[in-house]
Amino acid sequence: MNDGDVSRQIQQMVRFIRQEAEEKANEISVSAEEEFNIEKLQLVEAEKKKIRQEYEKKEKQVEVRKKIEYSMQLNASRIKVLQAQDDVVNEMKESAAKELLNVSRDHHVYKTLLKDVIVQSLVRLKEPAILLRCRKDDVPLVESVLDSAKEEYASKVNVHPPEIFIDNVHLPPAPSHHNAHGPFWYA
């Protein structure tokens, strides 16, 4: 072989090696690009998942805050309603206490009230004999309505009229002002 043939063969081998190297470099480049894209996708998906989880967590926190706020507003409105009811009841109680001071002054109204209270008591107790306690000042008035109260009770409940005895122990006298009507005013 002469120098020209050797040189051509060397040139041909160099081209072959260069071509092989370029193909290998292209394969490595393509492989690296694929790995890069896969890694990039995995990172992007992981971050997306993380962001979704954070968003869901914050959304739940907002939802819980809304529920708490709603519950607090509901409780506040319930408290307002209860306070308003309490105010009305206290006003009615105050008004009734003031009116009670005046009831015994109108003899006819007071007599009717006593009879109705006695009938209501008899209906609640449903006993054949009752010991009735009243104020000392009211004994004559109570005695005057006993017969009609017994008859009204007997007709309402369809029983024989009960025996009613007036107790010798009397309730305290009427209060002089409306604040005396408390749960223990006669104790």
TrEMBL record:
<protein>
    <recommendedName>
        <fullName>V-type proton ATPase subunit E</fullName>
    </recommendedName>
</protein>
<dbReference type="InterPro" id="IPR038495">
    <property type="entry name" value="ATPase_E_C"/>
</dbReference>
<dbReference type="Pfam" id="PF01991">
    <property type="entry name" value="vATP-synt_E"/>
</dbReference>
<dbReference type="GO" id="GO:0046961">
    <property type="term" value="F:proton-transporting ATPase activity, rotational mechanism"/>
</dbReference>
<keyword id="KW-0406">Ion transport</keyword>
<comment type="similarity">
    <text>Belongs to the V-ATPase E subunit family.</text>
</comment>
<dbReference type="InterPro" id="IPR002842">
    <property type="entry name" value="ATPase_V1_Esu"/>
</dbReference>
<dbReference type="GO" id="GO:0033178">
    <property type="term" value="C:proton-transporting two-sector ATPase complex, catalytic domain"/>
</dbReference>
<keyword id="KW-0813">Transport</keyword>
